[in-house]
Amino acid sequence: MMHKHKNLRKTFYDFDRESFDQLAEKYKWPSFRVDQLIGWQEKHIQSVDEMTNISIKMREQLKEEMHWPPIKIVQVETSEKEPVKKYLLQLQDGNIIETVSMHYNYGHSICLTMQVGCRMGCHFCASAKLGLNRNLTAGEMLAQIAIIAYAEKSRISHAVLMGIGEGLDNYDETITFLQRLRSDDGISMSLRNVTLSTCGLAPEIKRLAHENLPVTLAISLHSSNQDTRNKLMPIAKHYTIPEIISAGDYYFKVTGRRVTYEYTLFKDVNDHPQEAENLANLLKNKNVHVNLIPANEISGSDWTRPDQKTIDKFQEVLLKNQINSTIRFSAGQDITAACGQLRRQNA
């Protein structure tokens, strides 16, 4: 059964300026105390006792109002091949999620988790194996950024919402998270440096277009054939490929933001040149980009990646048809931190 947010205590990062103002009114704090609390969020603190500019009495009040620590590091796995770390993070109810830290030449990026588990059921994705336990709060998403920035003493400049779960299935909290991220208060980041991935929830994609949040939308398509997509992704039975492409077109029309289509290549499943031709026909004359992702293998799955010749041929067909595409090999495969390999550890 999925736990409700009402059973959880708020953490420090669940509070925004408005909710801090309410606390200030309750405890008769002067207004400048709220600015101090926002300042401590900007410093990504993990303990109330780090707030050295507030009184012991006020710290005790904060301990009463919030769950501390906001999130806890259980384990860190470091890749031997790339500047990538996978964090196992424990939430207040004991659930453990995975979040990935990646350092690139353009900045420090984080792959965020949005749910404890996932109910989309994609057969090739480790996140779906145990189903959905509960949604994360916006504060728990922000807490992932805070704890990794704190642990690595590094400013996180980019975020991809591609970890555990489907962000648009946790719509309200994901939107609140993005709004908080855009704010000048607390943890902030340019939303143009944020990518939101979705399995293709067409109504939510159209709804997102009107939120005035300039994120990059990445739609997981994975096949140009409806029957094949149904086998790969059970959620595909709810929204047809034309419906998803139409939603992507709508998102571009409203926002002016180019849509990315994610296409994971599986050997002898969706890697044939004819699939590439069909995909090119679907996306012809559209302002889109295709990320071709050679499959990352997960335990207990029969899905494998094609050989490099097959991958190159697939891209060649797209480029011949003037479809922009990139072959993206996911970082962190040696620590099961790559695309499709993250999972919740316990519930």
Question: How is this structure best summarized?
Answer:
The protein has 347 residues and is an alpha/beta fold.
CATH C-level of the largest domain: Alpha Beta
What number of domains? 2
Number of helices: 10
Silhouette = elongated
Estimate what percentage of residues fall within beta strands: 15-25%
As a whole number of angstroms, the C-alpha radius of gyration is 21 Å
> In CATH, what is the homologous superfamily of the largest domain?
Aldolase class I
What spatial order of strands do you see in the largest sheet? Answer: 1-2-3-4-7-8-9-10-11-12
| Main sheet makeup | 10 strands, mixed
User: What is the level-2 CATH architecture name of the largest domain?
Assistant: Alpha-Beta Barrel
Kindly state the number of beta strands: 12
Overall average pLDDT:
91
- The helicity comes to 25-40%
Spans with pLDDT under 50 lasting ≥5 residues?
none
